[in-house]
Amino acid sequence: MSINKFKRTLSTFCALGMVASVAACSTPAVSTSGTAGNGVAEKGAVLKVAYWESSSSDKAGWDLMFKNFAKDHPEIKLEPQLYPSNTFRQTLDTRIAGNDWPDIVRYTYQRLGKFKENNVMLDLKGKISEESLNDLVPAFRAAVTYNGKLVAMPHHTDTMAMFYNKTMFEKSGIRIPKDATDGWTWEELTANARKLKADNNLEYAFGGIWENGSGYRYLPFIYMNGGSVLSKDMKSITINSPEALAATKLYETWQKEKLVVKTGFTQEPAANLLFVAKKLAFTFSGSWHLSYMEENMPGNWGVTYMPQVKGKTGSDMGGNSIFAYSGTKYPNAAAIFIDYMTNKANMKAFTEASNFIPVRTSLINEGLKYTGFQKEMEVMLNIVKTIDPKLADDETSTRFQQINQIYGEIMDPIAINGSMTAEKALEKAQKDMTEALK
């Protein structure tokens, strides 16, 4: 990845209209990891760290960080609590209901809203050095800032691309987009899906990871067409628009023609499983799935760019933050761990090992060398710069988790059996989301 490409990626994120101010901390950093405040862990500190691993590369990143932290901070004991990615949120909710909070939690930016509003996140202001904070990409610093508090630290980002079966694409003579401006049009996507399905005797042509409560991963189709979920002032719902309807009707067409897998937006993941089983010609998946694809269909897959509408493309703003429970017995130790995981050196090591994208401007400017899939990660990094600023703004709003849940439930009838029309779905989405926004 060239430095110029990284800088273009950075400029896009810096353009996201999401910069929020965080009160400056004048206390100098005194620990080697850059933590502000006293930087001294409580005696006998034991941190329960709740997280998931989405792939073998993700596991490699976490294993590396846990090993290094134990060496660099022997005064703090870690108790990693690993849960399956598809049940992590439900497991955490169950624990919280039983007043059994972990000290540290890995969580997606899109779903931080309920924790922010319930005031259960440790305020890290004054515990992370201002120098470290100033290196964060503004969009992500804003995503973890709420009511003047620093409620989490951004850890990394990722995005979605089109993964394709090389053999099937060659058989059907399907062109591979060369860059982000060369993506298929919606019409081309649908025509290619029809051809790939027929030529390769497939039940369905493609799928996507807008499953298991992650309906927001289909939203880039709405935003690339000029639609949005929230108004500019974030005070009203705008999903029942002609632009959003066109994107929803597109999915309705795919469902009726059995081009897209009939998996609900709230159901268990299936797209990647079907893709590596050669039951699909392509799928919309994430950068963290690179190692999974190679492990399960070595050499027979590739990555290319997202579709586009009248020259505008886009993708999902993914990734995760790390926060501490406000009731932890060890707030200093928790802050040390979070700072350690998200400082420059460790963010670089983690993202290179796990095939994620950093959220520090210095790392983006300097460039990364991934332990694997360098070519594919360059595609992902070029896609990142196409993320719609309004999508990023909407997806990190405080009520987005409720909005996303409504969206997934309303899309289910379209995705599973076509029992609801696109028009009726968006009418209901507009009504239910407006109520949730109150």
From TrEMBL:
**Keywords from the named record:** Signal, Transport
Q: Which InterPro entries match?
A: SBP
Any Pfam family: SBP_bac_1
Signal in keyword set = yes
Q: Which residues form the signal peptide?
A: 1-23
> Which domain of life does this protein belong to?
Bacteria
State the family it belongs to.
Answer: Belongs to the bacterial solute-binding protein 1 family.
Q: What is this protein called?
A: Sugar ABC transporter substrate-binding protein
